[in-house]
């Protein structure tokens, strides 16, 4: 028996999933320690319940798909709208070197995934799902590419598979980064642990008098408010991104430059943001974009997890764990022998390696948590805290999207 939920009821169910996830995160320390997103924790519990109902009663639930797609496009538009090219200059040469390290790593991650999938007799596309689609990309990219692989490439259960891999990556990324960086620091004698008084001092940072740049833990005293006018302004930017995405998807359909709609939404955001900045001198409200983008991602993930069909994964559990275990080893080796060495073999490089493990397997919040665990013990790394959020917040998604499109064209 199949029960279908319309758009209104789908949205209600998604909000209930978010509230459940919030409650679980508040009371379960494991979820907080590993930065598991609230829609993931709540959604997986609901997905497991739906799975049990299906196995026992044969009941199958369906949810409104167009609503999920709309929120997905808003999320990727927010990434593009956050991509101010002037921030590239702030990172200096280190940012460009780190971007190069990441480009090579994404390629390696996908080669490992596709190669192992082929050796295990699986569809090579499953290797991409267990590669940069989910590990570098995270849950948002997992769901976006999952729907593309299902509709355009016939890979059944790609979204379900992607959510599972992304959740695994979040946990492993949080477990791996801190111990790996600590070993690099102690083995190479890069820093000494802070004394208790030094840790207390660094836990309460201050901004020097006259300084125009606030510490990342000390926001400006007079932030711009998210008012109704600001909300309308931001919604107009999102609408422009979605219109651009729809237009470009239709224009390029069947051509050599055909891309998924969400990639055009992201690209449209980049173009619109920088044209407004450099041509019209219009200051885009970053915080409002972040609020709308994060809310859209949460609702999108909640709907995606509600729509999971876990029974489609039963035959892939064993081979999938082999691929993910290999990806974990590759991540650790790459962070030690490539990221750490290329970035200078110093304390900053060790902290960057911890951050790379965080978003190379999980997400940017995991990367920041990894770095904070190290800097709380050994002292600050301003270079790492500048570079990693810039790369992990939006540049990684842009790079990953185009590298994945290239890999798909080779596998097609």
* Principal-axis shape: globular
Helices and strands: which structural class? mainly alpha
Strand portion, in percent?
under 5%
Low-confidence stretches: 203-222
Q: Biggest sheet, open or closed, and with what strands and sense?
A: 2 strands, parallel
Q: What is the strand tally?
A: 2
Distance, first to last CA: 36 Å
N-to-C order of helices and strands? EHHHEHHHHHHHHHHHHH
Strand order of the largest sheet: 1-2
Oligomer: single chain
Mean pLDDT: 81
Helix segment tally: 16
The value of Rg in angstroms is 21 Å
Residue share in helices?
Answer: over 70%
Descriptive labels:
412 residues; mainly alpha; two-stranded parallel ribbon; 16 helices; 75% helix; 1% strand
Can I get a quick summary?
The protein is mainly α and 412 residues long.
Characterization of the model:
It is a single chain. The protein is an all-alpha fold and 412 residues long. 75% of the residues lie in helices and 1% in strands. The protein has a two-stranded parallel sheet with strand order 1-2. The longest helix has 34 residues, at 86-119. It is globular and about 65 Å long. Mean pLDDT is 81; it is low at 203-222.
Topology (SSEs and partners):
Layout (H helix, E strand, L loop, with lengths): L1 E3 L2 H21 L1 H5 L4 H20 L2 E3 L2 H17 L4 H34 L4 H10 L4 H16 L4 H30 L8 H7 L25 H25 L8 H18 L7 H21 L10 H26 L4 H15 L2 H15 L3 H30 L1
